[in-house]
Amino acid sequence: MARPLAGVIDLDGGKSTPLARQLYEQLRSAIADGRLPQGDRLPSSRMLARQLDISRNTVSAAIDQLAAEGYLDVARGRRPAIAAGFVRLPVVPVAHGQPAAPARPRLSRWARRIGQSDWPFRYEGIPRPFAPGLADAREFPHDLWARCLRRAARNSHPRRRRGHNRLALQEALARHLVEHRGVRTEPRQIIVTPSAQATIELIARVTLDAGDIAWLESPGYGGARVALEAADAEVVGVPLDRSGLVLAKRKERPRLIFVTPSHQYPTGRLMPIDRRLELLRFARITGAALIEDDYDGEFHYDGQPVASLQGLDGTGRVFYVGTFSKAMLADIRVGYTVVPESLVETFEIAQRHTGQLVSETLQDALAEFMDDGAYAAHIRRMTRLYRGRRDRMVQALAAETRDAFVVEPPAGGMQLVARCRLRQDDRRLCTRLAEAGVTARPLSSHYIGKATERGLFLGFAAWTEKEIDIGARVIGRVCGR
Ligand SMILES: Cc1ncc(COP(=O)(O)O)c(C=O)c1O
Prior knowledge:
By secondary structure, the protein is an alpha/beta fold. It has helices at residues 19-32, 45-52, 56-68, 109-116, 142-154, 167-181, 196-207, 222-230, 273-286, 309-312, 324-327, 344-354, 360-371, 374-401, 426-435, 465-480, and strands spanning 72-73, 81-82, 94-95, 98-99, 190-193, 213-218, 234-241, 244-245, 256-259, 289-293, 318-323, 335-338, 405-407, 415-420, 441-442, 455-459. The protein has 16 helices and 16 strands.
């Protein structure tokens, strides 16, 4: 028997969706939810066209699509039949004429945790003083970079060798890291990824099993915590003294240790050579691997930078991590890691399986930017500029907030910590500052477990001296209330 389609099909010629598409969607949903039972037949296409007052071609297009997808059985000379044998979807209940909100898939423990936690930090909206971790995009040589991108795009085919880590960039980076950061590497040891964050996650996947212990500095970088927990590691916060991780009296045997020795995140302190050697000795004895995150190590203002941990290590247990998002622009989306020689192939495979690959065009453009000397020149110029901004920030905070904070000028990097002298709720203070137009992150939110100090974590690199003065005045006003 032909099914009457009244109440099932309601086409609207005024909609932008073509009539054939509307008919297809409405029939499909009526078949899927059982309003058109399996085995029943539709009217013939001629009849359907007449009933719905549309062309036969339109009906045929919808019927053919439904037949191709298995909803209808069609045979020459017979009316289309609703196909039998497929499992129906449960009907979504309708309340007050509105479909109920669709149930969302069950979330993993990790996803539930990142939804509830304020680390690394909640979305802060449009960047404004003193959002940390930002380079000043206004000072970037955009025209020069655009030329590199254009040339790389034009030359992007055909290529003989199609490795996902471009040799030209690996060579340029290796030269730079050996000369300026004291890293020991051959070009092929450099794995290019979309960011330092992606790199940390990749290293965690390659080196950790569920339940393995991973150490993180406390206070430390919340992004690393997120990445290590995604690998189901047991993340343990290790307290710091002025030199970095305090290793004495620790009983656990970590599988992985994450550190930021150039400028400890967030305190900005430099790990001196004796602590570096102690850490390497500890890693050797316990068999732990190390991640050395040198996220903003390019910017050093006072004295000589200390040689990288990776360069001091002779045993191939340090993963050196870097990123172009601080040295160039956040939007570049290129990071990298120098991996031990013995793990190059493993990382290349892991990279492919996790899709952590960077456009070859982008890599070639970066290689040219480095080979031409533009990268080194930009770092030199930004180092001068950021040094001046650091000094201005320290002076402005001292002038505007009098005794409220202790500020230790960092020897490098792009941000500083202003520690509260009095016991104060730094989260509440940051909320009040946000209302007054200034971004600051609470020092206490960087601890794993109980915070022992409170303060403001403030970025200075991306803001002009005038913006720094205005922002510091706001901090002074809010703290003075
Ligand atoms: C300590 C530290 N490591 C890594 C990163 C991540 O860098 P990327 O933007 O390349 O993921 C950041 C970003 O703020 C950082 O502060």
